[in-house]
Structures are given as C-alpha cells and as structure tokens.
C-alpha cells in the first residue's frame, strides 16, 4: 500500500484552497491534493485506498474507498461527521486541529499496518 494522501474536495472553492494550503504547511510529508467535488471519484481511484477525504458531501464511494473521511458542514450546519478507520463521531465547529488529528490518526494506523506486513 502506498503512502497516505489527503483529498480536499469541500465547497466553497475558497475554503478548499485555504484548507489544502494550511494542511500542506502543517503536514508537508503527506500528499495533499485539492480536488473539485465532481472529480473526487477518479481521484479516490488513484489513492489505492490510502486516502483521507475532506468533503462537503459523503458518497458511497468515499465511504467504501477512503480510510478516513470528514463530511464538512453538510447543509450549512455547524456539525461535521468524522470517520477515522470506520469509527464515526460528530464534531461541532470543526477546526484545523481536528483535520490534522484525522490525518495523524490515519497515518499512524497506516504506518503500523505497513510495518506489520512481511
């Protein structure tokens, strides 16, 4: 399995751009990629499963293919749904630190799995 990638596909575009830049600064070792929401499916296919997705609307494909994901502010609400390796939680007023925590938890688990493989 390849290294962890982060796909940022949330709306509006200005948030997507700011978030991807901030995440690239705080976690430069992780491949952060900005993706138009309608291009999320093909981008997920390129991740080989080693992917974290931040988006505005969760699809079946995101649930099935991403290791972890965050559905950010659905319907303009202040609540976001976070799923890290299948464990879901609801977070109010999501912050950058919360997103970094999702990346770190997922990356640590992926590293442990890669280390355990013969």
Automatic annotation (TrEMBL):
Lineage: Bacteria, Bacillati, Actinomycetota, Rubrobacteria, Rubrobacterales
Highest rank taxon of the organism: Bacteria
Protein name, UniProt field: Uncharacterized protein
């Amino acid at each position: 399995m390849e290294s962890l990638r982060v796909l940022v596909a949330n709306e509006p575009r200005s948030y997507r751009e700011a978030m991807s830049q901030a995440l690239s600064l705080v976690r430069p070792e992780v491949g952060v990629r900005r993706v138009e929401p309608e291009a999320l499916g093909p981008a997920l296919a390129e991740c080989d499963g080693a992917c974290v997705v931040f988006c505005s609307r969760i699809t079946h494909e995101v649930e099935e293919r991403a290791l972890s994901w965050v559905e950010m502010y659905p319907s303009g609400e202040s609540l976001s749904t976070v799923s890290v390796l299948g464990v879901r939680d609801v977070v109010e007023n999501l912050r950058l630190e919360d997103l970094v925590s999702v990346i770190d938890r997922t990356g640590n688990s992926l590293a442990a799995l890669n280390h355990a493989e013969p």
